[in-house]
Structures
1.
Amino acid sequence: MTRLLIADLMKSEGERDAVLLQGWVRTRRDSKTFFFLEVNDGSCLKSMQVVVNETAEGYSDSKGVTTGSSVSVKGRLVRSQGKGQMWEIQADSLELVGGADETFPLQKKRHSNEYLREIAHLRPRTNLFGAVFRIRSKLAFAIHRFFNDRQFFYVHTPIVTASDCEGAGELFRVSTLDPKNPPLNEEGEVDFKEDFFGRAAYLTVSGQLEGETYATALGNIYTFGPTFRAENSHTSRHASEFWMIEPEMAFCDLAADMDLAEEFVKSVIAEVMETCEEDLSLFFNFVDKELKQRLEFVLSRPFQRVTYTEAVEILLASGKKFDNRVEWGVNLQSEHERYLTEEHFKSPVTVYDYPKNLKPFYMRANDDGKTVAAMDVLVPGIGEIVGGSQREERLELLLENMKAHGISEEDYWWYVDLRKYGSVPHAGFGLGFERLLMFITGVANIRDVIPYPRVPGHAEF
Ligand code: 4AD
């Protein structure tokens, strides 16, 4: 007998015999001569009701079949007499696969998300987290489909790297040196030449620089992998390990880059709304009552576009008291981004042409001498979800920028080479996978959309 999934059984068109269901017991309700089980197998939000009569094999020694235990049920799929479900299983036999005693922490009651983070190994067995992680999987698939359909190639950029793409110094070191007794050089500093890779190495903050090398060979590429930031941010939108999607396109400027970012965000949201209807209904009904409307609104309208300079003017004219100062040349803070997208435009906004002093070395200088061809997409409820730019493809200007940012030409010789050999205008962006998932589900904390969140002070599991 092959195992059938609840997701498929729920779509059944008629009653069927010889069904094998395997999953975990959510609840058990006992009557005199029979009991009901709610069994969930993870394939969908719905659990299957199983009716176990005293005539069923295994009935007499079913005491251990309790909340949290795993079971294997053989029986018949029949129309349910009960309310709330169309199908149920009349068990012919019930087997306890693995018991769970009364210490199982997910007894039938609502638990706070904070508590569930402490048992992150068990939380996917709840309705909310089961739904989050099924949607996460579907969203990843939608992303690959989006790029594959447009002839982008998927490139695996390295996770261990010697370069600091964003130049922010938020790097986790990768080292096998003995911390108690590291080798020292003549200056008395740790000698990383003796380290595993023969040089200082780190976990990547972005696959962009390596991505650029492949875009200038394969044309359009994207990366989709884990990235790491040793940034001491204690917010609901920052994680130390998160996944990023980074497309990079040869023969492309900032305008086309912004177009792609918008089309991408809309397309994957639309696909998830189509393929995850049941799971999303949980978020629409119980997490954020305005979520459905917000997603539909985002799909139906063009994103607004303003330059950084216009954004600053809007903020200054708003009459709002912000905690952080608004001034041309100063970074927009989360409160400013949220004002723009939530209050002023009430829609996603792409802000572009940022002051060059705020941005990394690789961004393309605009003719005004003050700004670079950078863009950020801001969305309501989250703020920045995408950051991207056109890259500096002119050798002289790139070298100047590197100098200004204190970046050694020697270390980045391969990146500079791209500007020497067949350089082309090119552009790309990075989208934070978890931030997009937060936007789609309305889940307010990044710790609740990644299986095992890594944030300052926490690396349990
Ligand atoms: O703006 P960022 O730092 O851009 C880059 O890393 C570029 N190299 C991307 C590129 O052009 N290829 O990060 C891009 C996105 C942000 O917009 C945000 O969505 C997400 O990555 N992000 C984070 N998500 C969760 N936790 C963090 N600490 C994040 N930092 C950035």
2.
Amino acid sequence: MAFTGEATKQAFPDIPVIRYEGPSTTNMLAFRHYDPDAIVEGRPMREHLRFAVSYWHTFRGTGSDPFGAPTMVRPWEQGGDPLAAAISRTAVAFEFLEKLGIEYYCFHDRDVAPEGATLAESNNYLDTVAAELKRHQDRTGIKLLWGTANLFSHPRYVHGAATSCNAEVFAYAAAQVKKAIETTRALGGAGYVFWGGREGYQCLWNTDMKREIDHLARFMHMAVDYAKEIGFSGQFYFEPKPREPTKHQYDYDCAACINFLRANGLEQYVKMNIETNHATLAGHEMQHELEYAGMQGFLGSIDANTGDTLVGWDTDQFPTNIYLTTQIMYTILKYGGLAPGGINFDAKVRRESFEPVDLFHAHIGGMDAFARGLKIAAAMRADGSIQRLLEERYASWSAPLGKRIESGSETFRSLEAEMLAKGEAAACRSGRQELFENLLNTYF
Ligand code: XUL
Ligand code: CO
């Protein structure tokens, strides 16, 4: 992608367009593995990976934490009128996206435009900024991967949004999501995400859980109905997270979300947007969540980040672990890719990494880690040794008895007769976990 930026207003004047230079380069502002046009399994890397930048972390993150003030040095943030600042920030965002060659971005409504004094004023602000985003999209070819609404920051959402005990808050949230879907549609967004925000509870004594979950289902049906009405054909996603900010989030993990979707007749409209740090907070590996969703046809998109096993909250760090990215890409390839979803870096630079250049190092590292994971996963699939070992482990299910059980032609009675005649099941074979793990290491 050529840099078409508005050169006189560059926010990152010292940072060049980041290019693929290969593994032997010494330039840390270059890609070693992400070569967008390189073909893997018959398609260019850019189509497999579909990277997106999160507007909230990268352009709105301040570095503040519960113990300290903002630390981020962002020379383009001059303060002043919030709407004017929001408009000039869009140019910064697109300069950043262009210099990295990232083709997608994602946002919450309130990331891109400020909250007004009334709903109507907030809507007007969003329209004004969206027109500017549209102009940059048309200028650069960069696209919106998905939009969403922030239904958790404002004090009105103290008890949740769709699951609030206050019906007028539900109504306000509905109006906000209606507008966010309209905006996503106007920007040609490929998807729309529901993440629980504060949809959950802290104390069951003051919570009518059934009523709240029913309301969440009603809310999602209204969104689906409205999307049909206005011809928004983007994919809806539900993003699981077990806790934080509430103690019990209703969208705990893929199993809970998929059950919710099926129980409420939403399964044909909504897929999963799976985030690594949320998976680990739920006590799962990311690969487990991807496999669980993928095997049932619910794998939609991913929020790429990582947590820290020594820190028990959603640290949203940039992913650099190539074992992790290999697991992720292996499973994504297995289920035929993510499109129209993608890999959204829902990740923030550390509070201590406060200079603008750190934003580049963070994304370059994440993109290279995923490109490398993709190459390793493709090599594993081409070689097929892991798959062959896996099939061997289940060989008895390809033998006559296993086939008959799988096809449904056996019963408890017929199986009892079979085992009474044999007296004992065939001996089990070793699971060979260490062999699998050693084999995996041969690809790195
Ligand atoms: C919060 C989180 C959100 C969603 C979008 O943990 O991941 O940013 O991705 O609302
Ligand atoms: Co997320």
